[in-house]
Amino acid sequence: MKKSTHSVNQVFIKLSLVYAIAFAVNYIWEMLQMPVYEGMRFDDARSYLICLRAAFGDANISLAIFVLGRFLFGNWDWPQKFTFVKAHYAGLLGAGVAIGIERHALINVRWACTTLMPVIPRIEVGVVPVLQLMILPYLAYVISHKLSGRT
Question: How far is the C-alpha of 121 from the C-alpha of 127, rounded, in Å?
Answer without folding.
Answer: 10
